[in-house]
């Protein structure tokens, strides 16, 4: 009897201590609906940008994302993004995304025809200063052992 109680107690402790993943929490529908539509990144800012280059989403230098176009569809959490800046690599891709209940923006960049569930890598960014015409995504990067915010400023495109 004591063994059964011990096993039950251990099982309860294991499940009670389970951590929540950014991708397994409920979504923030209100924030998602507000992001629906066509957007453009108007600026990318971070301390030391004149000295440090950031390789955003392992695709290109962060400056190449200025002027990039993004389309967010809130009812199916899909969309597209495209880098179009001259003197930068041209890139276009479908994406999946959602805003979790903790206010984090979860993003996966897909290859053409690829299913989101097959993509293991993604990005969790902070969502800030959301309005009808703008919002910010904030990525945290390590610069010489110090965590630094990279702020992507989005503007609504009509």
From TrEMBL:
Key words of the record: Signal
Residue intervals passing through the bilayer: none
Ranges of residues in domain Lipocalin-like: 35-109
Cleaved signal peptide residues: 1-21
Domain of life per record: Bacteria
Protein name per UniProt: Lipocalin family protein
The keyword Signal is annotated on this UniProt entry: yes
Keyword Ribonucleoprotein carried by entry: no
Entries under InterPro entries matching the protein: Lipocalin-like
């Amino acid at each position: 009897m004591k063994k059964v109680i011990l096993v039950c107690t251990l099982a309860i402790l294991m499940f009670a201590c389970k951590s929540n993943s950014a991708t397994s929490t409920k979504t923030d529908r209100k924030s998602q609906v507000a992001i629906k539509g066509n957007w453009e990144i108007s600026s990318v800012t971070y301390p030391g940008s004149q000295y440090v280059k950031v390789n955003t989403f392992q695709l290109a230098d962060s400056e190449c994302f200025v002027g990039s176009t993004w389309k967010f569809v809130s009812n199916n959490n899909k969309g597209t993004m495209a880098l179009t800046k001259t003197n930068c690599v041209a890139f276009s891709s479908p994406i999946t995304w959602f805003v979790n209940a903790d206010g984090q923006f979860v993003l996966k960049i897909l290859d053409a025809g690829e299913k989101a569930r097959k993509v293991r890598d993604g990005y969790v960014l902070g969502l800030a200063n959301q309005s009808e015409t703008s919002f910010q995504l904030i990525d945290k990067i390590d610069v010489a052992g110090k965590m630094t915010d990279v702020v992507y400023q989005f503007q609504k495109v009509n």
